[in-house]
Amino acid sequence: MAPGRNLRTRPRQSGFDIGIDLGGTNIKIGLVDGAGRVKARRILLTRAGAGPTQALARAGAAIADLRKRRRVASVGIGIAGLVDHVAGIVRVPPNLPGWNGTPVKQTLQRLTGLPVFCTNDANAVALGEWRHGAGRGCRHLVCVTLGTGVGGGIIANGRLLIGANGAAGEIGHTAIFADGLPCLCGHNGCVERYVGTRYVEDRARKRVRAQLKRLKDHKNQTSLFPGMKTEGPSRMFELTNGDPARITMREVGRAARAGDRLALALVEEIGDYLGTALANAVELLDPERIIIGGGVSGIGRPLLKAVRKSVLRRTQALPGRKLDIVFSELGVDAGIIGASRLRTILDSGF
Questions:
Q1: Comparing C-alpha atoms, which of 150, 89, 133 is closest to residue 277?
Q2: Fewer Cβ in 10 A, N or C end of the chain?
Q3: Are residues 204 and 88 in the same domain?
Q4: What is the domain-level CATH number for residue 301?
Q5: Looking at the structure, do residues 126 and 152 belong to the same domain, yes or no?
Q6: 169 assigned to some structural domain
Q7: What tens-digit pLDDT sequence spans the chain (350 residues)?
Q8: Does 99 share its domain with 144?
Q9: Do 143 and 116 share a domain, yes or no?
Q10: Do the domain assignments include residue 2?
Q11: Number of domains the chain contains
Q12: Same domain, 320 and 335
C-alpha cells in the first residue's frame, strides 16, 4: 500500500471468514458469515508473557477446528499495537511483551494455509461497527475503544484511514494536558492516562478511601448537631462488601447509574477528559458519528451524557452540525467481525 493511502472496502462479502481479536489477556476467534454474524467462536488465553509462538500455534489449531466442513476464504486479525498492514508485523504492542516484530501474517498463513490480513485492534472494531453495527450508513465516523488502553479507528469518506505509517487513529495518545501525568507510551498528558481502566479504578479506590476517612473523622462532630443528616459511604463501597481495593469499572458503573454522588462525579470527570479528546477529533475530522466501545463504556448512560456535554462545550457552534455520539452495538464481537472483513479491502497492496 502506498504511504498515506486509505483503505476502501466493498459493501459486502459472501461465504465465511475467520476474525480474530488478539489482546493481552484473551484471543477471541470467530467464524463470521457474509452478513457479519458470528456463527461459532473460540476464546483462548493469550498467555502473552509466554511469547507469540505458543499463542499463534493455539490460534491456528482453533481456526482448524472452526473450519471443519466449512469453506473459509480468509483470516483477519486485529492486534493491540501498531501494525504493518502490508507485511503483517506487529510493532510496539503495549500489552504483548516480547511480541515486537512478530510476523503474525506469515506465521498464521503457514499454520492455516489461508490468506491472512492484519490491522490494529481498534481499526478492526471501527470496521465492524461501520459495516454491521452503530456506524452503518455513515461515510465519516470516529470509533474509540475504552479499556486498559484507549484506541481509535477512523472512517473518512467511506475509507478506513490508516495513515502514512499505519498509525492513524491513536486517539488514546493525543495530549489533553500539555504537561500532564506520565503515560506508559513515554509521553505526558495522554487521554489514556486519564480514562484508561486501571487509572479510573485507582482514582475510584482512592476517593472511596478518602471519603471513609472523612466520615470517620467527622463522625463525632455530627452528634453535636441534632437532626443533621449524615452522609453515608459511596455505593461503590457497599458493592464490594466494604473493600475499596475490589472496586472495578463494574462497581463504578453500577453506582453511577444508581445516582451515587461520588461515582457520578468520577464519571463526569472521565467524560470531560474523553470529550476533550473527541472534540479535537471533531474539529479535525468532522465526523457524522462517534462510536464509543470497550469495557469502560459499560458505565452506560451517565458516561454518554458526560461525553456529549463535554464535546458540545468544546466544539464550534456550527449551525445544523450533523454529529451523533453513541455506544457500540456489537460489543465484544466488534473486533472479531471487523477483522473478518479485512479481505474486502481494496488498493491495500496485500
A1: 150
A2: N
A3: no
A4: 3.30.420.40
A5: no
A6: yes
A7: 444 556 555 445 558 999 999 988 899 999 999 999 999 999 999 998 899 999 999 999 999 999 998 999 999 999 988 899 889 999 988 778 899 999 999 999 999 999 999 999 999 999 999 999 999 999 999 999 998 889 999 999 999 999 988 889 999 999 999 999 999 888 999 999 999 999 999 999 999 999 998 888 776 665 555 544 556 899 999 999 999 999 999 999 999 999 999 999 999 999 999 999 999 999 999 999 999 999 899 899 999 999 999 999 999 988 989 999 999 999 999 999 999 999 986 334 43
A8: no
A9: no
A10: no
A11: 2
A12: no
- Please report whether residue 111 resides in a domain: yes
Q: Same domain, yes or no, for 308 and 340?
A: no
Residue 93 domain boundaries: 7-133+330-346
Using a cut of 0.70, tell me whether the model's pTM lies above it: yes
